[in-house]
């Protein structure tokens, strides 16, 4: 954790308290003691610093001052999701890398039972995003949405949700090297581990997406996606 983040409900009169994994990290890893100053922030709010004012067993209290703007997300993602266990590894990394809105879409090669995964409940995916934000030292929460009908989403909702011309689809056989940058915030589309189908690629290209490839190696979704986002930053 490079920044300890708190929900707004955990801060009262400038005092933030925690007694969970964050407190354990403060005490065990950062060797926290009264008077020590740590990097802190409010989720979906500003960041700053906090001074430890008390340690009572597993509970740590800090006097916080959050006056600085956090780095904001710089790209968005349309993702045909991999298996839940892969998604669980991936979500913290996407938050750390600065992805803002993530729309999970039901491409043809997405496993049908994915949509019943408990990971899709906010109480389960939100802590994963928070972990990624604390690693990156930022505070702006990503947004996660689901659209089970890929074609309907691309045809009817994509342009309204992502009004940008800067669109790239990750797919083998795309252009090598750095893709040409267009106007607007980046929107990246990445398919399932089996890849986009030909008709899905054609539909995305008809909506202004340019193909981009990392090369001829076949990569897992989490590896490919992190590599793509990092290369495009």
Architecture blueprint of SSEs:
Blueprint: E1 4-6, E2 11-12, E3 15-18, H1 21-29, E4 37-42, E5 47-56, E6 59-68, E7 75-79, H2 84-97, E8 99-105, H3 122-136, E9 143-147, H4 150-156, H5 158-161, E10 167-175, E11 186-190, H6 198-206, E12 210-212, H7 221-232
Parallel strand pairs: 1-4, 7-8, 7-11, 8-9, 10-11, 10-12
Antiparallel strand pairs: 2-3, 3-6, 4-5, 5-6
Helix pairs in contact: 2-3, 2-7
Structure, explained:
Helix 2 (84-97) packs across helix 3 and helix 2 packs parallel to helix 7 (221-232). This protein is an alpha/beta fold. 30% of the residues lie in helices and 30% in strands. The mean pLDDT is 92. The strands form 2 sheets. Strands 1-4-5-6-3-2 form a 6-stranded mixed β-sheet. It has a 6-stranded parallel β-sheet with strand order 9-8-7-11-10-12. The longest helix has 15 residues, at 122-136.
CATH fold-level topology of the largest domain: Alpha/beta knot
Mean pLDDT: 92
Spell the H/E element sequence. Answer: EEEHEEEEHEHEHHEEHEH
How far do the termini sit from each other?
22 Å
Percent range of helical residues: 25-40%
Helix/strand/pairing class, anyone? alpha/beta
Fraction of residues in β-strands: 25-35%
CA-based gyration radius? 20 Å
Shape: elongated
CATH architecture of the largest domain: 3-Layer(aba) Sandwich
What's the arrangement of strands in the largest beta sheet? 1-4-5-6-3-2
Q: Based on DSSP secondary structure assignment, what is the total number of beta strands?
A: 12
Question: Would you identify the regions where 5 or more consecutive residues have pLDDT less than 50?
Answer: none
Individual helix count: 7
């Amino acid at each position: 954790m490079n920044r300890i983040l708190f929900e707004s409900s955990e801060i009262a009169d400038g005092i933030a308290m925690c007694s969970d994994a964050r407190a354990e990290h403060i005490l065990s890893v950062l060797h926290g003691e009264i008077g020590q100053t740590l990097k802190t922030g409010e989720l979906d709010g500003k960041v700053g610093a906090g001074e430890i004012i008390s340690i009572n067993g597993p509970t740590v209290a800090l006097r916080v001052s959050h006056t600085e703007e956090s780095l904001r997300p710089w790209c968005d993602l349309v993702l045909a999701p991999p298996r839940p266990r892969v998604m669980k590894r991936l979500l913290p990394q996407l938050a750390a890398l600065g992805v803002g809105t993530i729309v999970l879409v039901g491409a043809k090669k997405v496993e049908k039972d994915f949509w019943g995964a408990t990971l899709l409940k906010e109480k389960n995916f939100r802590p994963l995003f928070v972990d990624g934000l604390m690693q990156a030292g930022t505070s702006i929460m990503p947004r996660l949405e689901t659209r089970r009908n890929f074609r309907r989403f691309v045809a009817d909702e994509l342009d309204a949700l992502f009004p940008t011309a800067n669109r790239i689809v990750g797919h083998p056989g795309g252009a090598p090297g750095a893709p040409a940058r267009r106007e607007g915030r980046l929107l990246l589309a990445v398919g399932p581990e089996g890849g986009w189908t030909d008709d899905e690629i054609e539909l995305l290209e008809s909506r202004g997406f340019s193909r981009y490839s990392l090369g001829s190696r076949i990569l897992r979704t989490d590896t490919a996606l992190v590599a793509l986002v990092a290369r495009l930053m």
